Amino acid sequence: MTVRVERTLRVDASPEDIWEFIADPAERARAISVVDRFDRRGETTIWHIDLPIPLVRRTLQVRTKDVERNPPTDVKFRGTSKAFTVTGKHTIAKADHSATVSNVFVVEGRAPGVERFFERNFEEEIGNLERALRRYLDEQ
């Protein structure tokens, strides 16, 4: 089963400033609540995630890698694990004195409950990403 979720954010910042955050795999990983920790190995980031779903009793390793990078407008990543594959795309567009960040995530589950977890928790996770982005921009 596959689930696709989308949300667009409006941010009072330039696309270039947003790009610095959104294109950084470490910043993206830190914003996700189920990422317990992550390791960088060259161009690959390993997310160690703890999903609160039945039949998954241990931390999963998700190998993520950027598959498209078009500074400063979009980045697409793909992550794979034994339980699921996730593809995420963040597209930044200038809008008057602000910018929009369109986020699209597609999760293909191989373990029962994975898609439902992401579908139920997407709003909270995208909220985490938005708060992390705004904190990052405030610190600049």
UniProtKB/TrEMBL annotation:
Entries under CDD domains matching the protein: SRPBCC (cd07812)
InterPro entries for the chain: Polyketide_cyclase/dehydratase (IPR019587), START-like_dom_sf (IPR023393)
Membrane-spanning segments: none
Gene3D superfamilies: 3.30.530.20
Pfam families membership: Polyketide_cyc2 (PF10604)
Name by which UniProt lists this protein: Polyketide cyclase/dehydrase
Source organism: Halanaeroarchaeum sulfurireducens
Lineage, top ranks: Archaea, Methanobacteriati, Methanobacteriota, Stenosarchaea group, Halobacteria
